[in-house]
């Protein structure tokens, strides 16, 4: 009786010929099978499924359902019952692997409304928001931003073009960036 639960007599009794006369319900049978064979069967199913717990639980459940359905045909000895359960579990796993290989992996079809089509709408919208925010700047701040960030010029080049010291350009940029952040934050 090694490997079989210590209560194997209860499952054997429920599986016996006198099942209807003793008033045992189908629920009693399922409970006894699970109590007596559930833990070792789960360990066995985990090995078979590569430690996939969800799959192993499904295997145990299906095995015990098949035992319940075939109760009148089963050999009542604990070793034979255990062998039958393990064989059924093994076959369920094999069938599961075969069906996974035979059927292509399911993937969801992309929603036609969410397909990424390259367009310039996001860039255009961003440009409009920034352009609108630039209007809150003074003329000097706006010019410093335009020259450095949009025309990609250095502070020294901008200072020379505008005829102001580089420190002045840096100060205008600093205050302009802060004002832009506030304006953009206010617009959401």
Secondary structure: number of strands: 0
Which ranges are low-confidence, i.e. pLDDT below 50, for 5 or more consecutive residues? 1-8, 17-23
Could you describe the largest sheet, including whether it forms a barrel?
Answer: none
What is the overall shape?
rod-shaped
Average pLDDT reading: 78
What structural category do the secondary elements indicate? mainly alpha
Residues in helix, %: 55-70%
Please trace the helix and strand order, writing H or E for each element: HHHHHHHH
| Number of contiguous helices | 8
Strand coverage percent:
under 5%
Terminal Cα span: 72 Å
Rounded radius of gyration (Å):
37 Å
Labels describing this entry:
single chain; mainly alpha; 188 residues; disordered N terminus
Précis, in short:
The chain has 188 residues and is mostly helical. The protein contains eight helices and no strands.
Structural notes for this entry:
The chain has helices at residues 8-15, 26-48, 53-69, 78-102, 121-134, 139-150, 155-162, 166-187. With 188 residues, it is mainly α. The protein is rod-shaped. Mean pLDDT is 78; it is low at 1-8 and 17-23.
Secondary-structure topology with pairs:
Blueprint lengths: L7 H8 L10 H23 L4 H17 L8 H25 L18 H14 L4 H12 L4 H8 L3 H22 L1
């Amino acid at each position: 009786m090694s490997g079989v639960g210590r209560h194997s007599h209860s499952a054997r009794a429920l599986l016996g010929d006198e099942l209807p006369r003793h008033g045992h319900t189908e629920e009693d049978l399922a409970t006894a099978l699970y109590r007596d064979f559930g833990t070792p069967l789960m360990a066995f199913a985990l090995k078979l499924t590569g430690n996939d717990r969800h799959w192993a639980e499904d295997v145990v459940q299906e095995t015990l359902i098949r035992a319940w359905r075939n109760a009148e045909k089963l050999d009542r000895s604990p070793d034979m019952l255990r062998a039958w359960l393990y064989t059924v579990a093994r076959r369920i796993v094999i069938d599961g692997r075969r069906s996974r290989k035979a059927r292509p992996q399911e993937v969801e079809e992309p929603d036609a409304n969410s397909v990424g089509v390259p367009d310039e709408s996001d860039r255009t919208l961003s440009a409009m928001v920034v352009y609108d925010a630039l209007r809150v700047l003074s003329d000097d701040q706006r010019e410093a931003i335009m020259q450095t960030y949009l025309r990609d010029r250095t502070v020294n080049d901008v200072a020379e073009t505008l005829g102001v010291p580089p420190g002045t350009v840096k100060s205008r940029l600093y205050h302009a960036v802060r004002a832009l952040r506030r304006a953009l934050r206010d617009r959401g």
